[in-house]
Amino acid sequence: MLRQSLQQKLQQKLSPQQIQLIKLLEVPSIELEERIKKEIEENPALEEGNEIQEEYDLNDEVDGSFEEKNESFPDEEYATDDDIPDYKLNVNNYSAENSKVDIPVSLGASFHEYLIDQLGLQQLTEDECFLAEYIIGNIDDEGYLKRSAEDICDDILFQTGKHVDAETIIRILGIIQEFDPAGVGAHDLQECLLLQLRRKEQNEVTGIAEKILENFFDEFAKKHYEKIIRKLDIDENLLKKAITEITKLNPKPGNAWEDLWEKNMDQITPDFILENVNGELLLSLNNGNIPELRLSSSFKKMYEEYNGSKNESGKAQEAVAFVKQKLESAKWFIDAIKQRQVTLLTTMDAIIRFQKDYFLTGDESLLKPMIMKDIAEITGYDISTISRVSNCKYIETDFGIFSLKHFFTEAGQTDSGEEISTREIKNILADCIATEDKQHPFTDDTLSDILKQKGFIVARRTVAKYREQLNISVARLRKEMK
Prior knowledge:
Blueprint: H1 16-26, H2 29-42, E1 46-48, H3 86-89, H4 111-119, H5 126-137, H6 149-160, H7 166-176, H8 189-197, H9 204-215, H10 217-221, H11 225-232, H12 236-247, H13 255-265, E2 272-277, E3 280-285, E4 293-295, H14 297-308, H15 314-354, H16 356-361, H17 372-379, H18 383-390, E5 394-397, E6 400-403, E7 411-413, E8 419-421, H19 422-434, H20 444-453, H21 460-469, H22 475-478
Parallel strand pairs: 2-5
Antiparallel strand pairs: 1-4, 2-3, 5-6, 7-8
């Protein structure tokens, strides 16, 4: 049975301008340049230039103001009115969380292409070449083949109808495992290291290293060196040489290509530049390659001509609507860029004032405990806005380039009750571990006691958390031979 009823509900909706702004806030400078170029290509009413704009008249004047302060932008899907035109909502920009930009970079042959090129040096039949290429296609970017021979046989049967036995796949894989880089095509780390070790010149040290990997891999991984010495009946010096030989091997042979990609792509362009001039901190936005924007004078003139014409034909009205829409969209985009700059500078200025002692000296011990709520209270912005501003943004200082999130730290406590930044505690913890006796590394309990002696109250579980955040292993895995 169907029933009709009326229902009232309160729903928060964002205007198209707000959607533009919150999207642009997350974009770092290097992506903003591409975003602006894309907008210029798509909107003929927008062009580069910084000339003073003349007033123009639209029947429904665009409101370029953004009421940003004390306003919360929800992270869920933005609610908008159904009658808002698509051109006002389509911002086409990129967010670090939900978008990826394909940027063509020439790095020569890819890892898989390099392996396939080596097939040309082998005397293989057409069917064997097909199987070899199929196996190479299943090798991941680190150089590992995570699929069994039986699974590959099943895949080939399902996709091509060809029956292939596991022995043939294993034989072809053996050929691929002779390719460069050494260790490629291994199923796991143990096999990868063994493949590399067997290509080395054989001597007593490599022989012991091979026995360790074949028969005592778990003991080696857990650094139970006493068990290895006892079972192999060798002295500690020979074990140390064998372990040194193993640690020289590459656990991820495919990473040579990944490292080359990261080297080309992982270049940081700071969004802010901070200069210390005679004790005065001067902040500026890094807008070096970001063009000034203006409304197209030809488009404005076109709108005035169409709008002033008495021609009321359907095509004329469509032309007026089109030109008006493009002008509105262009003005909104210009206003959004300007508001982005204001919001970024206001937020960064608040961070600098909060952490002034640090920015004057670069001494991390002077970093105060600071959370996003602190900056939100200073600026009047919502915490979500502070989060968006600090996301993927960097600042260049006299002592290095840092992520904005580097300056947000939780509060620790000394034995006198004074609050300090957890970053200072982490630095002290890292120094303690760096200077420890590697034959008898400090446990988390010992590190907690050391911090207490230095006046910092830190529980063992907190020490473990900080150690993991610093990417430092547990004491057992930090242990080294004499």
